[in-house]
Each structure stands twice: as C-alpha cells, then as structure tokens.
Amino acid sequence: MPQKVCVIGAGSAGLTTIKALKEHGIPFDCFEMGSDIGGNWRFNNDNGRSAAYETLHIDTSKDRMAFSDFPMPESYPNYPHHTQVLAYFEQYADQFGLRDHITFRTKVERVAPIPVASVGGYFVTVRNLDSDATKTVHYRAVLVCNGHHWNPHIPDFPGPFAGETLHSRAYRSNRPFAGKRVLVVGIGNSAVDIACEVALLSKQTFLSTRRSAVIIPRYLLGRPTDKWVTPLSSWLPPAVQMATFKLLLAIDVGDQARYGVYRPKHGLHQAHPTMSGELLDRVKSGHIIMKPDVRELASDVVHFEDNSAEQIDVIIYATGYLITFPFFDPGFFEINNNQLPLYHYVVAPDHPDLYFIGFIQPLGAIMPLAELQARWVAGVLNGSLALPTKHAMRNSIARDRRTLQKRYVTSPRHTMQVDFYPYKRRIEKEIRMSRKRARNLQTNRFANKRP
Predict the structure, then answer these.
(1) Which residues, including other chains, have CB under 8 Å from residue 239's CB and lie 6 or more apart?
(2) What is the DSSP annotation of 152-200?
(3) Looking only at Cα atoms, what is the longest distance across the chain?
(4) Range of the domain at 116
(5) What number of other Cβ atoms are within 10 A of residue 289's Cβ?
(6) Is residue 229 part of a domain?
(7) What is the C-alpha to C-alpha distance for residues 410 and 416, in angstroms, rounded to an integer?
(8) Is position 240 within any domain?
C-alpha cells in the first residue's frame, strides 16, 4: 500500500487540506487545473471554474472567514473585495510553504478504486494541460477539494428564447448589459448582487423568483450581520435565535414587502437567507422590478406565473450549481438531487479513504469549517484518530437528511446546509471521539498481542 494521498484542487479548501497533511506528516500530491492557487477567488482563473466578477465582495465578515491561525489583515474592510481575499490566500500559502507542494496545470481525469480489496487505495489518472501527457498513480487515499460552485444548473423553461442567455458563473461586469432589458432568474446572493449591479446600466432589470427569500443587509444596527451570531448565542434554542433575528430585522429594515420585494412563504430558518444592502432600495426606486417564476419563453418575450409578460433581451440564470465529479466513473459515487452520502459531509462510508473537504453550505463562512474537516481527516490518515463503524456513519447520514428535510424547503440548495457554530462544535466533538476510538483500538491490539 502506498503512503501518499492525492488532493484534488488548490482553492481555499485544498490549501488548508495540504497544510493539515503537511503538519501531520502525511506525504501527498496536490493537483490543480489552474496555473496558480485561489480557486473560485482567482478572477478569470485559467482553470475555467471561477465565478468571481469584477465587483465581488465576500458576504461574510473577514474575521469569520479567516483560518484559525492566520487572521485577515486589520487594514481590510469588514467585507473584503475578491482581490483582497485572493491576496490573503496567497499570503497563507506563502506563510506555510504550501505552493511548492502543488502541481499546477494538471487535471485529474479519473479516480478509480483498486479492484483488489486487499490492496486498497485508488488509481488516479492525471493529465498535464500543457504537454497533454498522462500518468496513473496508486494513492492510499483521495481528498476531494475542488468545490461545488462550478457546474451551472440552468432550468429548462418551455419555449424558445431568441435573446442572449448566460449563467451567473459567466458574469463578469455590468457593462455588456447597458441599455438592455435584463431578466435575472434566482434570488440567492449572486442573483441579487448581479441584478443590483446590472440595474445601474440596463434599460430595465427584472428579478424572477419562485418563492423569494428573506433579505438581510450586510449590517444590522451598524454591526456586520454575521457577528450577531456568536458561539454563546448559537446555544440558544433555534426559535429564540430566529425571534431575536426577526426583531433586529424589523427594527433596522422593516417589512421587505413595503419595498416591493416579495415576502417569502417560508420562515427565516427554513431557507438560506440572501444578503444584500442594495436590493430593497433598487426595487423601491424601480430600477429592479420583481417577477414571479417564469412560465414560458416565447422568442423575445418571457411570460411569468402571474400572467404578466415582458420583452427581454438577456436572461441571466443565477440558479445554482449541480454537484458533479467528472473524474468518478458512472455509478461509483451516487449523487441524487445534490445529496452527497457523506458522514458529517466529509467521509464516504462505502468508499474507504475517500474524503470531501468544503462540501457544505454554511450559514457563515466555509473556510474555518473546511480547516477543521481537514484536520480531522489528516488525523484519521495518520492513525491518531479513528472513524466509527460504517453502520454508525450511515445512520448519521440518514439522520442528517431527515433533519434537513424537516427544517428546510425542498431544494437542491439545502442538501448540505449547516449552521456555523453547531457544525463547528460537531466536528470538534467528532475529533475528540475519534481520538478516543483510536486509543481503544490501540489498547485492544496490545491486549490481543499479549501472551
């Protein structure tokens, strides 16, 4: 069995993963399709998977986004620009000597389990994107860190559309939409950001949504919104947390329907809220006109569910992403409606030594949680931590699914939803339990060897 492990991707999740592996003394290879680090945060990344646009700022405050041992610079604003976020990741990579451990311009073409169970591990085939040379290497384990915001999901509305269409992943600036009638489909963070920006130059911007969303400003009573949630407050019953947050919104913002933004039918805790400091004003001023879901397309006219119709030049679909892994053979790792069968959203019980880092959708930042996930997996790989049984992991996955289905509206967006602090505590507890399991295993082995 080889000792090396394979890491796929050198974005934020990949960086913290190889740091954890390095600190735990685990040999590894890391492959990145692009020519540099940063993943989604590298504007116009030549790996072809970045959705960053010119004016993009993070929607979690810098303190909550930073890794635990590397704070963001004090000079940064509360919500840094994407260039500042990339600079932070570059400084992180340099500080911990990560860049030399990454093989750039190399695509993972195939990951396949070794067919002989007694051997274990995975064959990983990679291709150099410059020379087109390929090679296949046997690795002990594979850590997937390539993110889940790259394969666009575009709804299949009936009828033809004669105008231009694009997914939000391809959006870079509002300049191409000057003087046009633009429809943005969706009401997540990207949809709202893009609509607000396009509305500054377009002839008219429309925003279509099936069920709307709770709109939360970046600041509540002058404080970054995510800082109203603290480790202490996260222990309160969910109903108390939601009531407190609703009160803050009522005081600071009021009823969003008064601005012209549809009031969602679901509660604040039943769907991922949308953060925007501009949408309510843009709608109130008429720069953005709200529309319900699209019923059908008809050449240059879009018909909506309320029987209204608008002439449209461009449709921008900000409708999320499909979670796919093109390097897995069909049938190897089943994904149904964006649901990943993973223990704590990391471990694949039916595929030993296959791990996924950063495949969560937190109410908060992914990066510190991915850091914890990586430390947990690194501990498992070096033997200081031990996983529970497959049966226990499968039961935990089933419980997570039931919990999500009970709490959230039915949507592919909510299959990986976690609350920041409760999930953080969950992984920290898992690490403690994993350490205890490892000690018990060592004790049992020692006892069995005694004469």
Answers:
(1) none
(2) B-----SS-B-SEEEEGGG---SGGGTT-EEEEE--SHHHHHHHHHHTT
(3) 85
(4) 5-150+321-449
(5) 17
(6) no
(7) 12
(8) no
Q: For residue 42, what pLDDT is reported?
A: 96
> What is the pLDDT at residue 336?
84
The first and second tokens of residue 394, run together, are 């499968």
pLDDT (0 to 100) of residue 270: 87
Q: What is the pLDDT of residue 76?
A: 97
Round to whole Å and give the CA distance between 332 and 114.
12
Domain termination site, one of 317, 339, 358: 317
* Alpha-carbon distance values, 61 to 105, 276, 395 (Å): 32, 13, 35
Within the chain, which residues score under 50 in pLDDT? Answer: none
Overall number of domains in the chain: 2
Question: Of 4, 223, 219, which Cα lies nearest the Cα of 121?
Answer: 4
Q: Assess contact for 189 and 51: CB atoms under 8 A.
A: no
Q: Is the C-alpha dihedral spanning 166, 167, 168, 172 positive or negative? A: negative
Query: What residues contact residue 295 under an 8 Å CB cut-off, 6+ apart?
Result: 157, 158, 303, 304, 305
Which residues are CB-contacts of 355 (< 8 A; sequence separation ≥ 6)? 141, 142, 143, 144, 346, 347, 348, 377
Are 16 and 131 members of one domain? Answer: yes
Instruction: Note whether residue 333 is domain-resident.
Output: yes
Contact call for residues 50 and 37 (beta carbons, < 8 A): no
